[in-house]
Design a protein that fits this description.
The structure is a single chain. By secondary structure, this protein is mainly α. The chain has one domain. It is 63% helix and 7% strand. A three-stranded antiparallel β-sheet has the order 1-2-3, covered by helices on one side. A hairpin with an 8-residue loop joins strand 1 and strand 2. Helix 1 crosses helix 4, helix 3 packs antiparallel against helix 4 and helix 3 packs across helix 5. The longest helix is centred in the middle third of the chain and has 23 residues. The model has no long low-confidence stretch (mean pLDDT 94).
C-alpha cells in the first residue's frame, strides 16, 4: 500500500469511525485538533495491558500503529503546519515542518511503534505534541 495526501486522511478518519462504533463520546473528541491528541493517548492507555501481553497478536498492534499513526501525523500536520512526506514503506513516512534553515522532520509511525511497544512512560503522545509545538514556536 502506498500512502498519499488523500488516503492518509481517509485512514485517519477511519480510526475515528472505528472509535465511533464503540464510543461516540470519545470519537467526538477525535476532531484533529490539539486536544484530540489527549483523546488518542487515552485510547492507547486503555490497551496498554493488552499491548504488553506477549499473547497479543502482532497484527493487532500493527493495525493500531498504522491507524493511530495516520491520525497522529494528520493532526500534527493540521495543527502545527506540517506537510506529509511519504516513503515507499508507509511506516517510514514523516511530517515535515518549516523550522530554522532546513525544517524539522518527525516520524509519527515510529512514535506509535515506540508508544505501543514500550508503553506511555517516556512516550506519551501529549508530551510529544506539546514538545514539538514548543520547538516549532520557539524563536
Amino acid at each position: 500500500m502506498k500512502l498519499d495526501d488523500n488516503n492518509i486522511r481517509e485512514y485517519a478518519e477511519s480510526l475515528v469511525a472505528q472509535v465511533r462504533a464503540g464510543d461516540t463520546e470519545m470519537a467526538a473528541r477525535l476532531d484533529f485538533g490539539e486536544r484530540s491528541v489527549w483523546a488518542l493517548e487515552a485510547l492507547l492507555r486503555l490497551s496498554d495491558e493488552r499491548f504488553a501481553d506477549p499473547a497479543t497478536p502482532e497484527a493487532g498492534k500493527d493495525l493500531t500503529v498504522f491507524y493511530a499513526g495516520c491520525y497522529l501525523g494528520e493532526t500534527l500536520a493540521r495543527c502545527l503546519g506540517g506537510t506529509w512526506r511519504f516513503a515507499e514503506n508507509p511506516l517510514e513516512s514523516s511530517v515535515v515542518f518549516p523550522h530554522g534553515d532546513g525544517g524539522l522532520q518527525v516520524f509519527p509511525f515510529a512514535k506509535l511503534i515506540k508508544r505501543v511497544t514500550d508503553g506511555a512512560k517516556g512516550n506519551d503522545l501529549v508530551d510529544y505534541f506539546e514538545g514539538l509545538s514548543k520547538t516549532l514556536n520557539a524563536t
